[in-house]
Protein: NAD-dependent protein lipoamidase sirtuin-4, mitochondrial
Organism: Ictidomys tridecemlineatus
Amino acid sequence: MRMSSGLTFKSTKGSWIRNLRRQCSCRSVEFFVPSSPPLDPEKVKELQRFITLSKKLLVMTGAGISTESGIPDYRSEKVGLYARTDRKPIQHGDFVRSAPIRQRYWARNFVGWPQFSSHQPNPAHWALSNWEKLGKLHWLVTQNVDALHTKAGSQRLTELHGSMHRVLCLNCGEKTPRGVLQERIKLLNPTWNAEAQGLAPDGDVFLSEEQVQSFQVPSCVRCGGLLKPDVVFFGDTVNPDKVNFVHRRVKEADSLLVVGSSLQVYSGYRFILTAREKKLPIAILNIGPTRSDDLACLKLNSRCGELLPLIDPH
Ligand SMILES: [Zn+2]
């Protein structure tokens, strides 16, 4: 990880942050994390004050917290998926309506799954999990579907857009682990060897038309219905009960910290509006501008995994 060599910090547990840098150093991380200025010690102190004063902290995370785990975000300048590729996210309506689109989606998802599911939490995820254990965190809301907060042990957690680690039957509503489906797909496609085609560095998958057309799409074991990852695709809406639940957690909170989100998507931004109505202090940690910079009392353009472990949650 890139960090100014002129600055030295001690983490809350007393270990030098240099050790942390060694843990996180890998090329894929450099590839997906936007460039940022060196940590500003004054800003670190300001965030520390913000966290110390907070007794019921709500944290909302977005794709920016996972780039240091090697998962690209969508919107970051130069390194986000929108900047680097012409890839469009799948639309919910297309997925539901079109068998060929589902076939292509599941074929690519099958090939990409071993890499996607292998991503691990980074020090930012671990820091937030630690804050929860120490009673600092009132609630954690994530817009991510990568399950990295769960892998880090967070429990006071709402996955606003669901999780790629679960599969939903659109007919009977049964939810099953994605890993189980991987084995079923292998059995359904014994001669299908697209994995040999390999993956791009960001986990994207290239498949020929022939490969896609020979791919057998699994259906629900219980009712034969259509299967979809248990995530909110573009063009779909978040379950209203889940939205109301998060609104209540925001209203109970005394401060809000945004981590790694540009807040461009309304499903997350609406909670900022609720926080503003409640006049909660808002701090934002995100590399690059966000939709709510003008509402924040503190804005930090730093890497989540470098900054959050420096904060003492007591
Ligand atoms: Zn079913």
